Predict the 3D structure of the following.
Amino acid sequence: MTLVFGVFLLTLLVIVAVAIVRSTNLFAAVMLSGIFSLLMAVNFFLLDAADVALTEAAVGAGVATVLFLSALALTAEHEQVRPGGAALQWLPLVVAFATGGLLIYATFQNPVIGDPNAPVHQHVAPWYLENTPELIDIPNVVTAVLGSFRGFDTLGEVFVVFTAGIGVLSILGLRHTLVEMTSAEIDARQRSLRHHLIPRVVGRGMVPFILLFALYVQFHGEYSPGGGFQAGAIAAAAIILYSLLEGDDRGRALVPEWLLQIMVASGALLFGGVGVVCMLLGGSFLDYSVLAEVPSEGQHLGLLLIELGVGITVSGVLLTVFHAFARRASR
Amino acid sequence: MGVVELISFVLMTAGGFCVFVGGVGVLRMPDLYTRMHAASVTDTAGLFLVATGLMLHAGWSLPLFKLVAILVFLLVTSPTAAYALANAAMLSGHPPAGVRDETVPSAGRDGETP
Amino acid sequence: MEFLALYNYWVFAVLLLIGLYAVVAKVNLVKRLIGLSIFQGAVFLLYISMDKVEGGTAPIFQTADGAGVFSNPLPQVLILTAIVVGIATTALGLAVVVRIREEYGTVEEDVIEDMDADS
């Protein structure tokens, strides 16, 4: 039954992807890519990847759609259609089909889906599953691997996110003088939902609950699907929703830019700082066992702190990026 | 199979049928507003039925309360989303089918921008 | 149902094909970034398809000693971070596209190339 469901969803995924590429209306393409992400999240869930599904739903369907839409507001909503341009282009098509054909040919060598004897299940992963109860003592193995066993890797990823945030800021301008506008002018320019009573009332009611859920995902991530990456994206989505409803200026008043800049830097700093403290206490870098008397309690403390750092940086970067685009639109 | 299980499966099947009818409506209706009407009404009914069925299935446990929360949030947000979509369509100048252009106000009352 | 045992991998290949076509053939830069995110999605699907173990559940222990059959946590960890890094790099790409639009007044690559050739 699950197989039939999976095949159905995967086929839908392909249909949506074709529709995205065929559509010349970019607005429709962005909306379809939101659906694509949501379908992808359901597929991940069917494949037992609850943490990844949560991340994909929050990031892909939520934040990415908003970012693409705010970029569309600054560029053009339609692809320029040329004479004969809507037709398929043969050379790229041949290249793409050759690549796809080769990959499909290669898959016949792959072990079937779900085969417990597949090579990927033979090394490293069984060790993680075996030793997590003893060494880390938390139920969610994904969080244990992410934060502790492969903490160095995650630190790198956090710094990639951090660097991308800095990159967007340096391309779209860190500061600029806002022209003094009357509130009517701001209302007209912002294109916010401030005059739409029903979405505004309902949306404002949602924001605290979304933030609460973000906190649950953040601090319950060691026991259920969740963690800093997901919580950061969900928290950012809550503030972005508020900014969309009330206008970007009020969103910036709620979480001011200086605070965002501190968040972006301090989260990454907290992650790295925990590693350095571990070294000062006589362990190796990011070896949390030395943080407390009992090694597993030290691991708990370390995981809590680094997940917090990840959450702060991710939400800070996503909000910074959103404001950088929205501010351009309102100028 | 107990009575509760049976009721839960009946409810979930009915919910699935509602969503299916909504899908047919989206394909068959003539214009955006009737399509949206088909989708949003059946969606809300289907959601309610499926969620109630799942709650009966879950029994007194943590998932029950999560399902209640999901149901409440979706019952509030999905009509709002339908409203916002219809309003946006109206504002960007899509008159309902079968209505002549001059009878359509240029902007929705609630969503009028100054 | 035996022939469907590799279906996930085929969908991966087809999605990759579609994403690659969008990246190579489309001249609109925003559309290219959307194509790139389809391409990314295909890779995510490949990794997550590999983690499935028949009869297993999500790798979250239900008992203290960790008994039971679980899917492979390692690909999940890799993809979880990759999704967030993916959105960050997409945002960077969009920022570049917005700057290009401000300088050239268009995001169609062939028009931009013509403008560059003229100047």
Summary: Chain A has 13 helices and no strands. The radius of gyration of chain A is 23 Å. Chain A touches chain C through 104 residues (CB under 8 Å).
